[in-house]
Structures are given as C-alpha cells and as structure tokens.
Design a protein that fits this description.
Blueprint: H1 3-6, E1 25-26, E2 29-32, E3 35-38, E4 43-54, E5 57-67, H2 71-85, H3 91-94, H4 97-112, H5 115-126, H6 130-158, E6 162-164, E7 167-175, E8 178-182, H7 190-201, E9 205-209, H8 222-228, E10 234-236, H9 241-250, E11 256-260, H10 263-271, E12 280-284, E13 289-293, H11 299-311, E14 321-327, H12 331-343, E15 346-347, E16 355-357, H13 365-378, E17 382-383, E18 391-392, E19 395-396, E20 399-402, E21 419-425, H14 429-437, E22 440-441, E23 443-447, H15 451-461, E24 467-470, E25 486-487, E26 490-491, H16 496-502, E27 504-512, H17 515-526
Parallel strand pairs: 1-5, 8-9, 8-11, 9-10, 11-12, 13-14, 13-23, 14-21, 15-16, 20-21, 23-24
Antiparallel strand pairs: 2-3, 4-5, 6-7, 7-27, 12-26, 17-20, 18-19, 22-25
Helix pairs in contact: 2-9, 4-6, 4-8, 5-6, 6-7, 11-12
C-alpha cells in the first residue's frame, strides 16, 4: 500500500476543532402527531466511515445512535397521518396554498439555522467532502425556494376559469393522501427533500423514514418539523425498514410511495401493498450509465468529464458514469490520461482542503468492490492505474479496469463505488446493443464531434434512457430539468415542476355556462364560500 493510504486516517488528537463532535449523539426522539416522543427501547449505533488512531490503534468511530422503532410505532405514525389527512377533509389538505407556503417558509428559516450542524454530520456519517456537503445543504434550500416559486406560478394559473364548448370550469391540483417518503444514503438530505417537500406543500400528509446511512443529520431538524407543521402532517420514524415500512405498506393505507434506492427494494415493498392500483409510486432506482467516447472525441474533455462523472463522491451517485466505452483507436491515449488525472485526486478525510476521495459509509462495500475487481481480473482485465484498488479499512483507491467484457460482473452490475470499467469498441452498434439490452435506462453520455454519428446515437437512445448528455457527464441538475428513467431505473418524473404534479391530481369543478350557474359561481367566489373555487392571486 502506498504511503498516502497508509497514513490516510487521522490521529484522534489531530482532529480539527471545527469538525469535532462534542459528544456521541444519542437520539431517542422521533416525531409522531406533532410530538417529539422519547424512545425507551433499543438503539441502533451509527458508525462513521472515518477511523481515528489512538495509541497506535485504528478504531471506527461510533458517532451516535437512533431509535430502533418497531411496527407498533410505525403504525402509530400512520394513524396520525391518516387522521391529519382525514379523507381530504383535514386542516392541511384543505388549507389555502398561500398558508401552506407560509409553513414551508417557516421550516426553511429554521433549517438554515442548522447548516453547520447538518454539514458536519454529512461529513462524519457518509464521508462526503465538506465542499460537497455544503453544496448539498445549500442546493436543498434552493430547491425549497424554487418549489415555492413554482407552486405560486401553478396556483396563479389555476386561479382563472376556462370555457370550452359551453362548459365553464376551474382546474386545480389537489393532494393524493398519505405519502411515505424514503431517501438514499448518498444524498440523504437533498434527494429526500426533493420528494418530501413537494409531497407536503401539495397538501399530502407524510410519513418520513430517513436513509439507512445519513440518518443523524435529521436530528437537528426534528424541532423545525415539529413547530412548522400541524400535528400529524409530518411524522418521522426510525428503525429497520423491513419491520417498520413493511407494516405500513401491508395496511393498504399508503397512497403515495416515494422511494429512492434499489429496484429490488422498491419491488419488494410495493408487493406488500394490498391495493396496487391505489398506490402511486415515485421511484428513483438503480442505474448503469454508460459513457461512449467516439474516435473523434476531444479526449481531454472526455477524460475530464469522465473522471468527474465516474468518481465524484467516490462514484456513489445514481447518475455516475458506471461504465466507459472507448473507441479502440484512442483507448490507449484515453487510459493514460484518465489514469494520470485520477492520480491527481487527493484521498483523505472529508474536511481536508482539496480532498476528492474519501472513505465509504456502507458496511461491506469495500469487500464487494474488491470482489468485482478480482472477478474482472479473472476474466482478463487489468488494473491500469497505479495503486488502483488498494484498500485501507473503509477506503478503496479507484481502480481502472481494462479491457472489460460481458463475462465480468462489473460489465452489468452497478458498482456504486470507485471502480471504473473501460470497454474497447470498434463499431458503434456495440454501444447501442449494450444500452438496449441493459436492465437500466437512466442516462447516457456521448463524447464526439461528428454531428451525423451523434444524431444517430441520439435517435437510438431516445427511447432507452431519460436523458442523453452530449460531451458532458451524466447529472441530475439543473433541478428545473426532468429527472427520470426507464426500465428498472425509475418510475415517475422529478424536477421542481414535475414533483408538484406527481404528488397531486388535477380536479375540476365544471358547469354549463348559463346565467344561473354563472351567478352561483360568482356568489361562491365573492363570499369566499369555497377553498377550491377561488380567484385569489398569490404574489
């Protein structure tokens, strides 16, 4: 192992004061029906991917613990959410849009006051760099602001009446019911809130279960959730998903299932629901996004984008580039430059200046990745970069594998880590066949200059993936763009505007456009007799 990796983890005494955790965060509180309830039972320890050295011994830090709730507490949360929704007659679903926005704005103001605490927990719990942790927090706040703006626009458009073929009516978007929101560990704040906030702001009541890793960062926000929303509107539970979430789904009382994780996990949970036709699912799932580097590509740009695309946050992104197809005529030069760029990436602790590569939070992940590397080597691949695949506890150095073929696990399995498989190709049809036969269909990146060849690939992929990127890495943003996928990669579309739509349904009041009906509608609006029929304009 090289010297940098040997000395990767810090001594306990050298931890910067700015990031030190004063105490182990024992969390016993969870939020049900507007109350922070104290849990007297078993706790789940939260391990950091960061190890520290004391007296010559490396120890994985336990940074806190969270409640191991049971199905009983989960069902209490469900009862609270069902009661708060009250078949659509509850205070929250009937509340005017302007008032719901005020509640969200109040929550946002309290959330912003917890920035430093949340960012620090992101670093310690999932190993995300300080820069990226700060970016995730700020981007989440921006997303909330953009969601409020989009809802105001939507409501203004709905404040008018439409007339068609002698029928007049007003169309508004109304909530769906009780939503279950579950986010991923790699973006435990941002991607969770991109479902949670739209679900709430559209008038649904919510049960929120934080990610398996990245769970402690919700603790500083519990009081903000409690004080910002009416009782039962938002309920936050913890515990083993199979026990708690399984019990919720089996009741058939969940109307909306928002989940970002694996397609297997989503399928298993959906099968538990006794009324699948009633359940609306919004799912962000697995991906095996390929990059296709054509022979006329700008190699320097392709290398730069592919390094970022495959190794940002150690490749732990659903939108990461998971496999690179590089034309045989340029593959040698590409690998040389790619490996040289990787060598410049700094490994270290999340809070260190300029660090790019950090320890992995998922237990057993290093061994899983090691197995993928060894399997590829067994079938003819080599590690092309110096120190590739070297391991120190929870850290694995990026490994560039070449040449990769379809006999290797890494050819089709999503690695979700810093392993970069490179496949040489001669005919572009080889890349098309890969995308068409893949179980996943989120995104693809194409690098090249020939407009005709690029156009042919766009047409070949447009019915296979949700987004085609030209000379740039795969990515989610900007948040106003649709974020979706095909096959086993997604169900539903998320963006600022799309999320408001997927967590609601269009409802219409209509009547014949005659003097009597016009008088009735006018009286209802003038006397403010209905929450639905209204021409109020939100500024």
């Amino acid at each position: 192992m090289n010297k940098i990796l040997t000395n990767l983890f810090p001594k306990e005494s050298t931890l910067p004061e700015s990031v030190k955790l004063s105490d182990t965060l024992e969390q016993r509180e969870y939020l049900i029906n507007g109350e922070l309830v104290n849990w007297p039972g078993e706790l789940n320890p939260v391990l950091s991917p960061v190890l520290t050295e004391k007296d010559g011994v490396l120890t994985q830090k336990i940074i806190g613990s969270t409640p191991l709730l049971t199905s009983k507490e989960a069902l209490f949360a469900l009862d609270a959410a069902v009661k708060a929704y009250d078949q659509g007659h509850g205070k929250w679903p009937l509340m005017p849009v302007a008032n719901r926005i005020e509640h969200i704005e109040n929550f946002l103001a309290q959330m912003r006051a917890k920035r430093k605490e949340v960012v620090n927990l992101l670093m310690w719990e999932i190993g995300k760099t300080q820069k990226d942790s700060e970016k995730e927090f700020d981007r989440t706040c921006d997303y909330i602001v953009d969601t409020i703006t989009a809802l105001k626009d939507q409501d203004r458009n709905a404040s008018r009446f439409v007339q068609e073929q002698g029928i007049m009516g007003q169309i508004r978007r109304m909530p769906l019911g009780v939503a279950l929101c579950m986010g991923p560990y790699n973006y435990p704040l941002n991607e969770t809130f991109t479902t949670l906030i739209p679900a709430l702001i559209m008038g649904n009541t919510v049960i929120f279960k934080p990610a398996k890793y990245g769970v402690l960062l919700i603790k500083p926000l519990l009081e903000a959730f409690q004080t910002s929303f009416p009782a039962g509107v938002i309920n936050i539970i913890y515990g083993r998903g199979r026990e708690t979430v399984g019990a919720l789904m089996e009741t058939g009382k969940i109307d909306v299932f928002a989940f970002i994780g694996t397609n297997k996990g989503a399928n298993d949970l959906k099968r538990l629901h006794p009324k699948p036709h009633k359940l609306k699912a919004i799912l962000g799932l697995d991906a095996k996004n390929p990059a296709i580097v054509l022979k006329d590509a700008d190699i320097d740009n392709a290398v730069s984008e592919c390094v970022l695309g495959s190794l940002s946050f150690n490749g732990q992104r659903c939108t990461a580039l998971k496999i690179l197809f590089v034309h045989k005529s340029i593959v040698t030069e590409f690998i040389q430059k790619f490996s040289a760029s990787i060598a410049k990436l700094k490994p270290g602790m999340p809070w260190e200046e300029g660090v790019s590569l950090t320890p992995l939070p998922e237990p057993g992940k290093v061994n899983f990745l090691k197995d993928l590397v060894e399997d590829a080597q067994k079938h003819g691949a080599k590690i092309m970069n110096e120190h590739g695949g070297e391991i120190n506890e929870t850290f694995i150095n990026p490994a560039v594998l070449y040449p990769v073929n379809d006999k290797m696990k890494v050819y089709s399995i999503e690695q979700f880590g810093p392993i970069v498989p490179i496949v040489p190709f001669e005919h572009v049809q080889e890349t098309i066949d890969y995308v068409v036969s893949s179980n996943f269909g989120q995104q693809v990146s194409i690098f090249g200059k020939d407009s005709q060849q690029i156009a042919n690939l766009i047409d070949a992929f447009s019915n296979q993936v949700g987004r085609i990127n030209l000379n740039v890495q795969c990515q989610r943003g900007p948040d106003s763009f649709p974020f979706n996928g095909r096959k086993d990669s997604a169900e539903g579309t998320l963006s600022v505007g799309d999320a408001l739509r997927v967590f609601s349904i269009r409802t219409m009041v209509a009547t014949k456009s005659n003097p009597l009906n016009k008088q009735i509608i006018s009286s209802i609006i003038k006397n403010r007799e209905s929450q639905f029929l209204s021409t109020d304009y939100i500024f």
